[in-house]
Design a protein that fits this description.
Blueprint: E1 4-6, E2 18-21, E3 28-30, H1 71-78
Antiparallel strand pairs: 1-2, 2-3
């Protein structure tokens, strides 16, 4: 299991907003459900699709991964 450093929670609904992963300093995993359009960033990938709900299709052409993103993608995001 990956250890997390911080998990700020939404004051309105109690859900987590983002997670800082100790193994990847400076990388933040954002809770997609916490976002509202228009987005101010361009997503690089969809991760953990093995946990996705089958009724929520993902067909926007962005790379997908059944688990965590590959290290090369994480390093690209940090540079």
């Amino acid at each position: 299991m990956t250890k997390t450093q911080a998990q700020p929670f939404c004051a309105a609904c109690g859900d987590f907003m983002y997670v800082e992963v100790c193994a990847l300093p400076g990388v933040i995993a954002v809770n997609g459900a916490a976002l509202q359009a228009p987005f101010v960033f361009t997503p690089e990938a969809h991760v953990w699709l093995s946990q996705a709900l089958p009724e929520v299709p993902i067909s926007d052409g962005i790379p997908t991964y059944n688990g965590p993103p590959p290290l090369s993608l994480v390093l690209k995001a940090r540079s």
